[in-house]
Backbone:
């Protein structure tokens, strides 16, 4: 007891170091399973966005990395085919413009650029407000289905509260803007690269 009172700082330092090592070990041990679960959810969502029987390849592995302006690099582009013909591309992208942090989206497009559907894979938005971007919390995310870069024009891919064409979630303008902007950026990338998207060799990773 006398030793601790005489030398409290070294003892506390050792305790802090031990705690840091323990926390690092726990993080390392849990990071792998958490990441694996996130990827499993992403793969399940990927197949849910495509009509059953509409493709006959494996979109999960028919993929390649892409660098899309304004989104966290790299994005992952999955491709669905039937009898070798392009059916859809699915862009797994992350925007860092969310209100509470990054928002990860899966955006499914037809080869002509029409939106099949959008789903949120991961986010940290406020419960009861920004989390309504999730499809099981509101229908807000479904307003993009059937839309394309020219419908509305590129300059209108913004929330209506910022002069755009899309509904804004109440009290979640920043969240809404982040999702809308990310979809618009994917559409612009698809338009610029549509001739080569289905010709790029699949990643071997």
Residues:
């Amino acid at each position: 007891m006398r030793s601790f009172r005489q030398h409290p700082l070294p003892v506390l330092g050792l305790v802090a170091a031990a705690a840091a090592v323990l926390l690092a070990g726990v993080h390392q041990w849990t990071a792998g399973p958490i990441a694996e679960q996130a990827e499993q959810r992403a793969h399940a969502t990927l197949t849910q966005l495509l009509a059953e029987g509409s493709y006959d390849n494996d979109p999960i592995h028919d993929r390649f990395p892409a660098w899309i302006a304004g989104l966290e690099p790299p994005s992952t582009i999955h491709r669905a085919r039937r009898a070798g013909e392009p059916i859809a591309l699915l862009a797994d992208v992350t925007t860092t413009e969310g209100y509470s942090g990054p928002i990860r989206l899966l955006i499914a497009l037809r080869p002509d650029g029409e939106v099949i559907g959008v789903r949120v894979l991961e986010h940290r938005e406020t419960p009861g407000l920004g989390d309504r971007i999730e499809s099981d919390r509101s229908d807000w995310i479904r307003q993009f289905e059937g839309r394309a870069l020219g419908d509305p024009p590129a300059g209108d891919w913004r929330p209506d509260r910022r002069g755009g064409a899309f509904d804004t979630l109440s009290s979640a303008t920043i969240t809404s803007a982040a999702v809308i902007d990310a979809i618009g950026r994917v559409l612009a990338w698809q338009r610029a690269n549509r001739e080569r998207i289905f010709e790029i060799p699949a990643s071997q990773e």
